[in-house]
Automatic annotation (TrEMBL):
<protein>
    <recommendedName>
        <fullName>Octopamine receptor beta-2R</fullName>
    </recommendedName>
</protein>
<feature type="transmembrane region" description="Helical">
    <location>
        <begin position="46"/>
        <end position="77"/>
    </location>
</feature>
<dbReference type="InterPro" id="IPR000276">
    <property type="entry name" value="GPCR_Rhodpsn"/>
</dbReference>
<feature type="transmembrane region" description="Helical">
    <location>
        <begin position="132"/>
        <end position="149"/>
    </location>
</feature>
<keyword id="KW-1003">Cell membrane</keyword>
<dbReference type="GO" id="GO:0005886">
    <property type="term" value="C:plasma membrane"/>
</dbReference>
<keyword id="KW-0812">Transmembrane</keyword>
<keyword id="KW-0807">Transducer</keyword>
<feature type="transmembrane region" description="Helical">
    <location>
        <begin position="346"/>
        <end position="365"/>
    </location>
</feature>
<feature type="domain" description="G-protein coupled receptors family 1 profile">
    <location>
        <begin position="69"/>
        <end position="362"/>
    </location>
</feature>
<dbReference type="GO" id="GO:0071880">
    <property type="term" value="P:adenylate cyclase-activating adrenergic receptor signaling pathway"/>
</dbReference>
<keyword id="KW-0297">G-protein coupled receptor</keyword>
<comment type="similarity">
    <text>Belongs to the G-protein coupled receptor 1 family.</text>
</comment>
<feature type="transmembrane region" description="Helical">
    <location>
        <begin position="225"/>
        <end position="243"/>
    </location>
</feature>
<keyword id="KW-1133">Transmembrane helix</keyword>
<keyword id="KW-0325">Glycoprotein</keyword>
<feature type="transmembrane region" description="Helical">
    <location>
        <begin position="89"/>
        <end position="112"/>
    </location>
</feature>
């Protein structure tokens, strides 16, 4: 659309019959308007470039945090025996899924954002990218669903937990978690069930565009399997866990209050017969309650449940905007529910950010993970410093030059054979240690030997 240029009102009588003067005035006005437009375009280009740099930086930080943070989780659990429990095997598997999200989903999305929406990997890889994105996102939430079920049995049924969560059931749950997402990712996408015929024709004619446009049945089924149903299961499980943890906390508080009231009652009534032994037994019972392995185990289970509850809440907060946009935009269509590209990018990367958020939650809310992270990072720093020292020390060693190889051999042999004679008498002189004069030349050794013989 052509822009309309509005010139200021001019009194043409001022120019009179001089038409050239009026034309020069119009040309100068056009030039000033063009210069102002060019300044605005330069400012707009600068802001767009600045926004692109900011967006690229944030995306790279999310990718690196997801890669190295989840790698730290895996290494810490494998290196520390204390963390090798059934729940943390689910956590390790979740960290692996988040790492694969960063490698396959985030990196491809980052390439699209950097190239201005252009897909450079071909038609087939577009289907691969969409399939892996759906697959690993679904695997992440199914892992969290399994973790919530595991925590439920560990806290609500602690006595039956070792019989319920066996190694065989653990392997079966992990196999289901890793295999079932293929039903809503690879199968419908490569069979072309997920989208419309119009979109398939558009993709064949424009292979440089990779957009994930789905039909209504697929959007409802895939979102239910990937988010809504597992999310409701997790919310229900953690609600039951919260109720049970609160009940156990109240029972523990009541037992402590009852023991304190009993002790106070004995003091008020002045019961002397057996008071000392009874008080000692009460104190022993309280100490046993405080140091009971079952009580400490119950506290650890509640702390782990709280940490994993925060993880689930963060997951729902990160992925809920995406799935709301995903379902609403598909059901009402792009005609009535058009979303700008910036909104689509935002909801995608807010969901991706969850893959980088889980290690931060572990480090902040779980003391055992925090200590394991610290030890792992210290070991990595020590290994890196050791490698650096070796690289810096070896060249210096190679550049050491001796004046005479035979003199060096003679020096070592002479120090070994006459080490006992290279001592001054204890009248005030300093004793010589052969280890301290390894850089002495041959002439200095002879002089030193002459001096020692003269003293003897």
């Amino acid at each position: 659309m052509t822009e309309m240029v509005l010139l200021p009102e001019v009194n043409r009588s001022e120019f009179g019959a001089n038409k050239s003067g009026f034309s020069r005035y119009v040309n100068s006005t056009h030039l000033s308007y063009s210069s102002s437009v060019s300044v605005l375009e330069e400012g707009r280009s600068f802001l767009l470039g600045l926004f692109l740099v900011f967006k690229t930086t944030v995306m790279l930080m999310i990718i690196m945090a997801a890669l190295f943070g989840n790698l730290l989780v895996i290494v810490s659990v494998m290196r520390h025996r204390k963390l090798r429990v059934i729940t943390n095997y689910f956590v390790v598997s979740l960290a692996l899924a988040d790492m694969l999200v960063a490698i396959w989903a985030m990196c491809f999305n980052f390439s699209v954002e950097v190239t201005g929406g252009r897909w450079v990997f071909g038609y087939f890889m577009c289907d691969v990218w969409n399939s892996l994105d759906v697959y690993f996102s679904t695997a992440s939430i199914l892992h969290l669903c399994c973790i919530s079920v595991d925590r439920y049995y560990a806290i609500v049924q602690p006595l039956d937990y070792p019989l319920i969560m066996t190694n065989g059931r653990l392997a079966l749950m992990l196999a289901v978690v890793w295999c079932s997402p293929a039903v809503v990712s690879f199968l419908p996408i490569f069979m072309e069930w997920y989208t419309t015929e119009e979109h398939l024709d558009f993709r064949r004619k424009n292979p440089q565009v990779c957009s994930f446009t789905v039909n209504r049945p697929y959007s409802v089924i895939s979102s239910s399997v990937s988010f809504w149903v597992p999310g409701m299961v997790m919310i229900f499980m953690y609600y039951r866990i919260y109720v049970e943890a609160d009940r156990q906390e109240r029972m523990l508080y009541r037992s402590k209050v009852a023991a304190a009231l009993l002790n106070k009652h004995l003091q008020i009534n002045g019961i002397s017969a057996g008071l000392t032994s009874l008080r000692q037994s009460v104190d022993a019972d309280l100490a046993e309650v405080k140091t009971d392995p079952g009580t400490s185990k119950m506290k650890r289970e509640r702390k782990a449940a709280r940490t994993l509850g925060i993880i689930v809440s963060a997951f729902l907060a990160c992925w809920l905007p995406f799935f709301l946009w995903y379902v609403i935009s598909t059901l009402c269509g792009t005609t009535y529910c058009y979303s700008p590209p910036s909104v689509v990018t935002l909801v995608f990367w807010v969901g991706y950010f969850n893959s980088a958020l889980n290690p931060l939650i572990y480090a902040y809310f779980n003391r055992e993970f925090r200590a394991a992270f610290k030890k792992t990072l210290q070991s990595c720093c020590q290994f890196a410093s050791r490698l650096t020292c070796v690289r810096l020390w070896r060249p210096r060693r190679d550049h050491v030059n001796y004046s005479n190889a035979s003199s060096d051999i003679h020096m070592n042999n002479h120090l070994v054979t006459t080490g006992a004679t290279l001592r001054l008498p204890p009248t005030g002189a300093t004793s010589f240690d052969p280890r301290l004069i390894s850089n002495v030349s041959e002439g200095e050794i002879i002089n030193l030997q002459t001096q020692s013989e003269a003293v003897i």
